[in-house]
From TrEMBL:
It comes from Candidatus Heimdallarchaeum endolithica. PROSITE patterns: GNAT. GO terms for molecular function: acyltransferase activity, transferring groups other than amino-acyl groups. The lineage of its organism: Archaea, Promethearchaeati, Candidatus Heimdallarchaeota, Candidatus Heimdallarchaeia (ex Rinke et al. 2021) (nom. nud.), Candidatus Heimdallarchaeales. CDD domains: NAT_SF. InterPro entries: Acyl_CoA_acyltransferase (IPR016181), GNAT_dom (IPR000182), MshD_Acetyltransferase (IPR050276). This is GNAT family N-acetyltransferase.
Amino acid sequence: MTLVSQFLDLAEKHLPRFCYMVDNYYKSSELLKFQIIGQSVFCSYEHYVVLYGEPNVNLVYQIKDNYPSFSLSFNKKWLSLVFDHFTKCNLIEKSVTTRKYNRFLCMELNIEKFQNSKFDLPKLDVVDLDEIKHGKILDLRRIMKISKGLGGSGIIIDNELVAVGFIPHLVTNDRFSLCVFRDIWVNEKYRGKGYGKLITYHLCLKAIKQGVKRIFLWVEKDNIPAIKVYSKLGFEIKDEVYSVICSFNKEQI
């Protein structure tokens, strides 16, 4: 069995955890690096690195310092090994104040539950961001995200973007049918009004309309309000991943 076959088999069995890497692989397969030693897995794509399975220091050494920093995701069992061998670790989601690392819940939408439920949602229009990308409402970063996957949706009040969400990761082929929601955000002044729920609901409709079979998102475990919103819409917790942005500590090699 080839390394590619091993990667795809592993990803298919643990898709909530590997949904990002599957999307990366189909974008540019030659950039994917993959290695298995026993029950331990190393996987990287550009500056995104995954350590999975049983902790193994030999796989830590597979991470080269080709970049000033890189995004690292790993299971809880890797925690002590990671902090023994990496330095200058920074948070991906900055809202966390009690830890030096993020804990993300990998959630998947129960599509049948979503389709069979009725939701209490704000009576507001949700716009396709592609329709307004030439205006002054979106910054360049968000304009760039619109071109990926299934684009994004937003709520505009008084010519101001007050809520937004994107589906930049999309894979539809004979083996996989998946998408990943990202960067769901509500302006601080408008939180608690159901706008995040409304945006996520419309993203779900958009993905289902396109025939996507599996829909994922990751959310910081400390973000209890968001987790409650996603759960009410039919998202279920499937896995948990630890993440940091860090650089290699050469003195530990």
